Amino acid sequence: MAAPELERGWVCRELAEELPSLALWLMRIEARSGRSPEPVRRRLRRLSDRFTGGYVIHMRQDPVPWAYRVFWRQIGIDPDTDRTPVEQIALDRLERGAIHSRNLLDDALVVATFETGVPVIALDASKVGKAIGLRLTAADERLGGTGRSLSSRQIVVADEDRCLAVLSGEVSEDHGVTSSTRSMVLCALQVKGVPEISVSEALWTVSDTLAVGRDAPRSRW
Amino acid sequence: MPEEGGCDARRNDVPAALLAEYGMPSPLAPRPRPDERPARRDLLDQIERLEGELSSLFVSAWPRKGFELSVPGRGGPRLLALAELEALRDDLAQRVDHARRGLSDRTLVEERHRARIEQMLLDPEKHKWVRIGNDDIGEPGCKHWHVRPRWGLLGYLMNWWRVRISSGCPLARG
Prior knowledge:
The complex is a heterodimer of chains A (221) and B (174).
Chain A: E1 6-8, E2 10-11, H1 13-18, E3 23-30, H2 38-49, H3 53-59, H4 63-74, H5 85-96, H6 104-116, E4 120-124, E5 133-136, E6 141-142, E7 149-150, E8 155-158, E9 163-166, E10 183-190, H7 196-212
Parallel strand pairs in A: 2-5
Antiparallel strand pairs in A: 1-3, 3-10, 4-10, 5-8, 6-7, 8-9
Chain B: H1 16-20, H2 37-61, H3 82-122, E1 131-133, E2 144-149, H4 153-158, E3 161-165
Helix pairs in contact in B: 2-3
């Protein structure tokens, strides 16, 4: 199987003019989700042990998490209410006492987001178009074409035909990864202040973590 | 990829030709607006700077409680209008200013409490029954300094006072 490549998604003109550093990076991979194998669970446990209260408090001043906090603020989200993905992981860890394994894909996304600070979402490659990018919604658009209605001028991840995910992380149910998914498109958002290497590392971390589970037996979803 | 300008959701279907035939400008035609981009960029930069200050204040204020550092969202993720960006900038500036004053006042009081602890240790008789906790000096934990009579009632009657320093938070019980 050929090694996956990074590609840059399109960004519509108005968004690119307003936020010149905004970019969406994509990686298409052959992978499935399922139950996380022991090495991934072990990695989650190690990750979990690295959290302390002080670490989480100071996280918002680290360059990458801070860049997403600023971006959240600039696009009208209160990062103290709707947390950036990395802060949400940290908060969940503090509240639950550990990072619990859910499934291979979710675990891979958590590992990548925590290690790099870069949020990553996954789509089912067989259900989305070739050209994926960022744009603003028109009036009366629905998430995934048939899902909940979106207000106009929201920033969404979209293909040629429909919006696939809201920028803050909500993925259309019809286009997300399911147990029958065999190939995925990983999407990572780059904002001002986030180096490209962090974004590519995030995508490679998801890809590598999914590869760990590729040959593992699948007992359940 | 969508065609040029494809992310602008607005559509303009004004029959301007009809009015132009009579030499009148269409009242519904889009008016040329001044370029908002420099103003928007300035506002985005200001929001970035203020968010940085708010984060610094949050870290400085921790573990103190009672600071309101949240600024409501604007129904994002979306591109905010110029007026919304201005309002957000003003709210952030106000919040930063408020939090900075609050923290400044609090640290002044804490400094006084620290000085008082030193005085209590030097001269407990002059600070009978005074109790100062970690909360009062802006630190985490349950430690406190309490001026109490030595040997209970006897110390009370004999005016023998000392500062008792607690050993920390009580252990969690099942």
